[in-house]
Amino acid sequence: MHTDIQILKKRIIELFCTCKDNEIDTFLETYTEDGCFSDLDYTVNYRANWPASFHLGRLSAFAFARKERKELDELIVKGMEFWFKHDFHNPNWFYEDLEIPWRMGLIALTCEDILPKDIKEKMISRLLTDLNDAMKSDKLWTGMNLLLFGRNAAMHGILANNSDIIIKGRNYMENTIFISDVGEEGIYFDGSFAQHDVLLYNHSYGCMFFNAAVSWLYILGKTDFAFQDEKLQILTDLFLKGTVKMGRFDAMDYNPLGRARVMCFTDSSQQGKYYQNMGIYLDSIELLKKIHTDKNTIEKLESAKDFILGKRNTPYEECNAQYWQIKFMTHHRNNFYASARLADKEVHGGDLCRKKLVIGQDNLGGFGAYGSCVYMCDGKEYEKIFPVWDWGLIPGTTTPHIELTLEEGALHDTEFAGNVSDGMYGLCAADMKKSYVHTGIPMPDADGRVLPVPEDAIPEKPSSAFFGGKKAYFFMDEGIFHLGCDLYTDAEDDFNTTFEQSILRSEIYADGKKIADTGNWQDINAKYIWHDNKVYVNIDEAPLKLKAGDVKGNYNRIFITPTAPQEPVYNRTFTLIRPQNKNHSSYAYAVLPGIEADKAESAFINIKAEILSNNEKCQAIYYKDKVMAVFYDSTSLVSEKCNITVDKPCFMIVNCNSKIMHISTPDRSIDSISVELNGKSYTAKIPEKMIMKGSSVEIKL
């Protein structure tokens, strides 16, 4: 057992204890004789980006470099003495119970031979070993937080050479790696990850969870403290079925990022950077490759790595990925990536904790899951766009033109939302229903601070409104075909369907004619628009509006904490919208990514999808011998291609060539669906297991 503990120490140092020489030299410039850093304000107690926490981060860097630079030993000891002399604490339980103890643990592990006994004992004592000792309610300790708590407990046992405590910490960590039931946080069977109730979170929290879990899977492996064998497959499936399919090359899809999508900036006081790229998974991929013995899995992991590095165009295959438990769908083709995110009464549309905004982050994300779409060819389309974004015009959504706060919009009234997939093609749809009271008043952060915002962001009086309608997204080889109908609102604000809002990166052409980037709204009457290797096909030839040019923004509108940068942010954006009538209007358009300018007209002319229905009962298209349809009620689709009658609401893809039907329903109370297809009757049996309800059922015709 003692030998195993030494193995654990070596592996922790291998994974976590590295630093850069230039980092050390920078930190030394502000280190004082008192054992502190002159550029850190130790008097403030921010709940996010707490300056005092950077003190331990810098001492950690010293600790990791001390073998090569012995002069750092004395500085580390003095720095820890300074910390305990002033007894720093923070009101954010995450710092108190998780982050600060872990940093102390790493310093103690790498400096066991130089730390005074009393200092070392104080550091180890901060690593709690029982949830009953935690400062907050047990309700906080799920998913990522519980895994980090277990990590700290295991570190306590390692430093104390206590096998029982290591096992206790191991058990806490191991108990977070399981397939969650419907409505719970954690890993879902479909490869998605939920945190903060049922919120899509494969990146950010999910990324932290996955990387930490894989690290400890490796650290504890082949010792008496190893995880159960099944945990390896669960984590591998989370990555290969889910996470790696949620981005394009190095770029993460912003939909699974939660509130982290607004933190794409460098904060000089923090001496760090929030990364929003897939490269953060590369180390975990290498660890999984070391652990796995299955050749096929190792090959998929290698392909996923090559995809992230831009050496191949798909993670390991062209595919359509259905995440039925979290109302999300992604789509990979060699020349583009696309996704659509929905929500309902159970799946949240934003990052709330106990229905409250978390530390002032993602303040304006209220419309973030009302059909939000991402289209990426090279992954740079939305890079650092959020400070200058118009959050009332999120791509793929149909909403009133207001910037709805997260607390006003994250909880949905929708009961009908879901998807179906045959693995290569997919369909997702929702019957949107949302009521809200829009105050427009910026939400305070956890410290009660409200930072200045532009006056035009605050309406004269709160507005109470509702909106809704039926929206369907059909994923094809060329892109996404969009249908909307029965769209309505009583809001006083403009009502729009947003085709796109991305970084302006090229010329713009409407029906082949160049459009000037004036920075103002322009009325556009065109059959198609081209920008940045994407064609926006205006199928019903409705009047459009386009705005392109320079935009001024700021981070403190979306990240209202004292440490958010106050200086203006400038960028260039491209926005294309379709104004909607406010009473039972409709739309039909397509987005075709991966098309060069000289091929835009040809792509528009040769679009292969045909609308079969777009009404309140059924939305359907015919595409390459496939009928793709959403039925909002027990109804019939009658067309020249086929006649279909269903007895319950459902999603359906009928492949007329291969004689295969895929069907699903968002209603988990349904056990079966009766289908009549061209005069023949079929019964689709819905899976009995709750976690499988909503998944696609295959029926041979």
Description:
- With 701 residues, the protein is α+β, with helices and mostly antiparallel strands.
- Helix content is 25%, strand content 28%.
- It has 14 helices and 37 strands.
- The chain has a nine-stranded antiparallel beta sheet. Strands 28-29-30-33-34-37 form a six-stranded antiparallel beta sheet, with no helix packed on it.
- A hairpin with a 4-residue loop joins strand 8 (319-323) and strand 9 (328-333).
- Helix 9 (205-220) runs parallel beside helix 11 (282-291).
- Residues 266-274 and 444-448 have low confidence and may be disordered.
Characterize the main sheet.
9 strands, antiparallel
| Helical residues, percent | 10-25%
Strand order across the biggest sheet?
A: 15-16-17-18-27-24-23-20-21
Form type: globular
Summarize the helices and strands and which ones pair or pack.
Layout: H1 2-16, H2 21-28, H3 51-65, H4 72-86, H5 93-110, H6 117-125, H7 143-159, H8 163-174, E1 186-187, E2 193-195, E3 199-200, H9 205-220, H10 230-242, E4 247-248, E5 251-252, E6 266-267, E7 272-273, H11 282-291, H12 295-308, E8 319-323, E9 328-333, E10 336-341, E11 352-353, E12 356-357, E13 372-376, E14 398-400, H13 406-409, E15 416-421, E16 426-438, E17 463-475, E18 480-489, E19 495-503, E20 508-510, E21 513-515, E22 522-524, E23 528-531, E24 534-537, E25 544-553, E26 569-579, E27 583-593, H14 600-605, E28 610-614, E29 618-623, E30 626-631, E31 636-638, E32 643-646, E33 650-655, E34 660-664, E35 672-677, E36 680-685, E37 697-700
Antiparallel strand pairs: 1-2, 2-3, 4-5, 6-7, 8-9, 9-10, 10-13, 11-12, 14-19, 15-16, 16-17, 17-18, 18-27, 19-26, 20-21, 20-23, 22-25, 23-24, 24-27, 25-26, 28-29, 29-30, 30-33, 31-32, 32-35, 33-34, 34-37, 35-36
Helix pairs in contact: 1-9, 2-3, 3-4, 3-5, 5-7, 7-8, 7-9, 9-10, 9-11, 11-12
